[in-house]
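Minutes, project check-in

Agenda point 3 was the complex the collaborators sent over. CS summarized: two entities, 796 residues total, and the question is how they sit relative to each other. Sequences were read into the notes so everyone works from the same version.
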Amino acid sequence: MAVTTQKAPPATEARHRRPLRQRGLSFEGKMLAPALGVLAAVSIFPFIYIIAMSLSLVGLIGGISFDWVGLDNWTRLFSDGAVWASWLRSVVFFVLTVGLEMLFGIGIALAIYETRRGRNVVTSLVLMPMFMAPVIVGLLGRFLTDSTYGLYAWALDEIGIYNGDILGNTTSAFLAVTLMDVWEWTPLVALIVLAGLTSMPRQVLEAAEMDGASYWSRLRDIVLPMISGVIIVALLIRSMDAIRYFDIITNTTNGGPADATKIVPIRLYETAFRFFDLGYAAAIGLSMLAVTIIMANLFLRILKQRGLAR
Amino acid sequence: MTGLTRREVMVRAGAGAAALALPGALSACGGSDEGPTPVPGDEWRQFAGTTLNFISENTAPTSAIAANVKPFTDLTGIEIKFSQLELSALVQKVALDFASGIGSYDVIYADPYQVLAPYHAALAELTAFNEDPNLPKIQDLGDFIPTQLDAAGRFVDRERLYALPYDAPTLIWMYRKDIFEKHRGRMQDDLGFDPMPNDRSTWQQFYEISDWIRKNAKDDVPYGSGHQAKQHDSLMNDFSNVLWAYGGDYFDNGTDVGRYGSDAPGEPLLDRPESIEGAEMYRRLVSIAHPASTGWDWTGLAEAFMAGQLAMAAEWHEFAAGIESSKIAGKVGYARLPRGPKRSANMYGGTGIGINGVAPENQQKAAWLFVNWATSPETQLSNLKSEVGGGTPTRESIYELPEVKAARKPPSDMPNVLTTDAVFEAWQPENIGLRPKIAAWNECDTVIFTELSKMLAGSQSPESCMRNAKDGFESAIERAEALRKQ
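CS then shared the predicted structure for the full assembly.
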């Protein structure tokens, strides 16, 4: 059996030496090719399809049909006051949910980190909400805020804080769906931050403590800078999700009252599956995709600047 | 024995899987496009062995039929698979099924406004089945309540029938008899009219009664009235009763647009003074009703009524079945809705069942057997007695049966029949309320209930609400027209 003993050139050197047209897929490339092919089929084709939809009037009867309308759907999108209003609501909702989730999530993680006894039990209890399907959270929220038999509605009335219908009033409905999301996803932020906290070298904190640093100064000058990368990751994950918020609103207010909770995903769904105006819905969907990509890139840039992403 | 390499095992396993899959694939390729092959003989059993998919809103008649489908299977040898969904989910599935051309659902709960009007072209025309000598005919087509046959079954062309009336929920006035009787004398003295619902009762009186009860009968009930005023289809239904009562309408010749439907309904009339007056009255009604009204759809309203939160409401008559088994059973009276300056209007919410025109021909014929059976007098009577359903018969003959007549007075084993006097009044041509049956209705419906919701939230006046709704209607109709011409 012949054994090749010739020493292989370094990979970078070989790559430079071979002419461009002779370059084939590397071993890793070949291994990845099938998966990439499937990924392309399930993501690139639909992407092209949805772009074509956004440039067409889409008919459903007798099979799906496209009637080219050029940029009509896009022109309508940029001049549609109702969609802009939905974007404004989405921004407010985004800031409130993600802001509160980060605030409470970091707070809860710090509290759990400082807990010495029963930490596992506390962690398990805190994490519970995020294991529930959002649709169940919506149903639960609707039940608890119902003015006829809802516990929260009853409690707020008894305390004298609020006696109207929580989901029937514009401000309270918006706050209610925001808080339902916060309730469900704050534990995720807490979990991610807690993972960051537990990976910190304890010696640094102990040294600071021995030097007489207060809790707040340790938190401000040591803990937060050390877990900032993890916090940005949590922020990225929640941001991507918050922009697509849908289930809870659908199950509680369905966009009402007075459109107060009609954020962009609800309007997109309504346009696509209630009005079956699929061309316009495709344009709204693509605009959502663009915003999501811009946001993701923003976060990635921050991570890169901190040397946390390659 | 030579062992197999891993590669050989993979190759042989793949060949085996292909061999197993091939007969199925071949039979699929060689199958008839016409669906099951009919067997000569009994016209009801010619498609024995077939399975039909029935997609329906989760309503009382379908629950009743699903619980007792055995008589149909025994009669025909056909199995029925039921998909019961919330109406908006049903509309999506049906529309996408029509678009796919697959015909996954053979029998379709064809809501006249959300399915029949926009997608009638994809539904099978039923007259052809009724005239087919090899298929059983409908038992007396003229037995169906005429307005309902037109409203639930036809679209524009009065000769073509797409669905048979299957249920007939109608908004009527439900009130707590016990509370009204207890305070009748005091209310009459204070208000200057008899509060008991009658032919002359008006929406203004409804308002005054509601206001009186919330101020003077707190010990019996927290609020006088409630509404299904959530930003939802229910809000359009609730409001339309008042709109029509005050002489307003969605379109000119609204009765015909509601009964037969229209491809070109013309200019919306929502900005007319009568329509604005109706909107103003509705705003007043909700302003003194249970504050949770703006968060209730029809189910929320019914639950609150059954929980003793309010003394009266406009509610679908099919909820009587639930009410008569709740803690307020026997305490509720049913009447036609109040009048406005123009008339009394009672929203009709009935639906027909039709056949998917995309399905293979013989599958459609098998579906015809089910549609025919499900709307027959025997099945409608059985539904009425069902413990899980309740039914709202669409045939006049059912209401003439001695046992049904006897059930009109409490105690009744057919609670929905307790509402018969009220719904018969409501179904009179001069009292029935028929929303526009137009292709753009899904979007127009959303426009009107969204604008009304804004009005109820105080963010716009009744006048602005109606003007904005009119503009929204015009845009929606324009877009639907563009799609229709495609």
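Noted in discussion: The longest helix of chain B spans residues 6-30.
Follow-up: revisit at the next meeting once the mutant set is ready.
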